[in-house]
Amino acid sequence: MKLQPILVVAWMLLVGTGCSSSPGRPKSDSASLAPDQVIAFTTLYNQNCAGCHGVSGKGGAAIALADPVFLAFADDTAIRRTVEKGVPSTAMPAFARASGGMLSEKQIEAIVRGIRSWAKSDVPGDTTLPAYTPQSPGDPQKGAEVFRSYCASCHGSDGRGGSKASSVVDGSYLTLVSDQYLRTIVTTGRPELGAPDWRGDVEGRPLSNQEISDAVAWLSSQRPQGPRPSAISFLEQPRGGTQ
Question: Alpha-carbon distance 85 to 95, whole Å?
């Protein structure tokens, strides 16, 4: 039995329609993008950043990136440099291809823009933030006094921990963090952990730029000497600066 030409065409259309709508068949718009073509911030952040900085930048093993104080303290250049080049001797890897990572320039830019988009409010109160990098060398001896005045109520007079917070002079901890990380924490605090920023340690007495540098110098002086292994850290200052 031979089918008429018109019936053959109708049969082919019917078969084609049935296959295109069959269960499990991918939709026409569901094709996967190549890894280097993904520029959606949420996808890039979840794949590369959330493991340390927490869901939606709310903090985890590393600092909260969605904190308005942090976003006012660290500008786009600092954030981009860290994403691109990472932080040597820490757990912050380099993500840019030029530095051995796997992300393109467009993907790096998407991450920087996305992180900046979390700055939905200004820093409340005094908006004159300390400088991101130290403006002059810190004095460890003066830093010890700064620490006792501003930090001891939580971390203990010797920095070995108190009723409200843990030790910040533990050798393992200090070996695993950079001076810039310490400066960032002293300035921005860890709001997700209840640690205040530079204005909240002593009411009405915000830390000055120099006092922050002195406190960091004292903390750094407690660091064991020798090779430094990888560590959890964030936002190193430009190469050639204080380590």
Answer: 7
